[in-house]
Write a structure and sequence with these properties.
This protein folds into 2 domains: about 150 residues, Galactose-binding domain-like (Jelly Rolls, Sandwich); about 220 residues, Rossmann fold. Helix content is about 30%, strand content about 25%. It has 10 helices and 18 strands. The strands form 4 sheets. Strands 1, 4, 6, 7, 9 and 11 form a 6-stranded antiparallel beta sheet that branches. Strand 17 and strand 18 form a beta hairpin.
Length: about 400
């Protein structure tokens, strides 16, 4: 994450505070948008609960029945039977208070084909992914393509036509949780100019290694990833530590976002780990810490110590999961520290259900995207390597 992006994040936080309680500004356009949101939310519909839809990743249902999505890859899946399907999406306060580069990006897939790919630039949007005169049965996926820190969106209860039904898609044979940073989010993968800065419009988690690995393995997934964040420090261009950008601070929360779930902050909500117990947790953190630690032995030792403590938190909440710690795609300087953290943790706790795995750094011939992040080619190679390692250690 660049210095410019960090400045934008600070500006966004200030603009949200200035708006007052997360409400829209009082311009005519915002008032119109707000009234439309109120009107749509006043309609009765079918809430997307576990009884009728698979909730993907960490999602949150508010008192009005809106299913909120913050983290990359989060959303909902269901099998729809009927003629016409409308899906109404509510944006968070970032649409009216934040920069355009931070709006949420979402996709809607029907039977695996992406039929909607859109930026949420309005308070509420309606999509009609299935339309016709003949009853059909289709699998529908709603996926948040962009990351949590910048913005969130909510899926309103669905107004089904008479005779139409929805039911959850089947659970897949395996469950994985990915914990990471911008690489896991798919930062910049849709922008082939490495000199360009961050924008949610060029993020696509489905083109990144974690999502691809889950697809390779036929596994359900959940992700907790934030661009620029690390174990003990977020990305820094001047050597100063950014301790407020530590994944361990919020891992036990719903998410972290400058947006939110209407008037509820994602980071104010504890996450119920019983909702999703993975067989495997993959941790890919250290790329941003490296910008702070570099070759300083004291800082590297602090990274190892912080990593060990985070592993204890992960284990507490995922008691039966295998933990796989990896690093390398955007640099592997701290990989020896990852190995030491795994070794120190195992020695201290006696927990042997954990290992480390080195991922090859990106290669010049495979290209670079925004802010010198990995291309889809690099992500695909990383997913293939990680898939093979998971099959080896898990026996899948």
């Amino acid at each position: 994450m660049t210095k410019k992006t960090l400045i934008l994040l600070c500006a966004l936080a200030l603009s949200i505070s200035a708006a007052g309680c997360g409400k829209n500004n009082s311009s005519e356009n915002d008032s119109t948008s707000s009234s439309r949101v109120t009107e749509e939310k006043g309609m009765k519909g079918t809430r997307l609960t576990a009884e009728n839809a698979k909730q993907v990743g960490r999602t949150y249902i508010d008192d009005e029945g809106t299913l909120w999505c913050a983290l990359s890859g989060s959303g909902a899946e269901f099998e729809f039977t009927g003629k016409n399907l409308d899906i109404i999406i509510e944006s968070d306060k970032v649409t009216s208070t934040g920069p355009r580069d931070h709006y949420s990006r979402l996709a809607i897939l029907v039977d695996g084909e992406r039929v909607v790919d859109d930026m949420l630039n309005d308070g509420i949007k309606k999509y009609s992914p299935i339309q016709g005169d003949t009853e059909v049965t289709k699998t529908v996926q709603i996926i948040k393509l962009s990351e949590t820190a910048m913005s969130c969106f909510g899926i309103l209860p669905i107004n089904l036509e008479e005779g139409a039904t929805i039911k959850p898609t089947a659970s897949k044979p395996h469950k994985i949780e990915f914990i990471g940073d911008s690489i896991t989010c798919g930062y910049g993968v849709d922008d082939e100019d490495p000199t360009h800065d961050f924008a949610t419009s060029t993020e696509d988690v489905t083109r990144a290694y974690a999502y691809k690995t889950a697809q390779n393995l036929g596994a359900d997934y959940s992700m907790f990833s934030i661009s620029g964040w690390g174990i003990i420090s977020g990305w820094t261009g001047n050597g100063e530590q950014h301790p407020e950008q530590q994944i361990p601070l919020y891992y036990e929360k719903q998410a972290f976002s400058y947006g939110g779930f209407d008037d509820v902050e994602a980071q104010s909500l504890d996450w119920d780990f019983s909702c999703y117990q993975p067989e495997l947790v993959v941790i890919n953190l250290g790329t941003n810490d490296d910008s702070y630690c570099k070759s300083d032995e004291d800082k590297r030792a602090a990274y190892v110590a912080g990593y060990v403590e985070f592993l204890k938190t992960v284990r507490k909440n995922n008691p039966d999961a295998r933990i796989l710690c990896t690093l390398g795609i955007m640099g592997d300087n701290l990989y020896p520290c990852v190995e030491k953290a795994v070794s120190d943790y195992s020695a201290e706790t006696g927990d042997a259900n954990i290992s480390a795995f080195h991922l090859e750094p990106q290669k010049p011939e495979d290209g670079l995207v925004a802010d010198y992040h990995p291309t889809e080619t690099t992500h695909t190679k990383a997913a293939e390597a990680l898939t093979a390692e998971i099959k080896r250690v898990m026996g899948w």
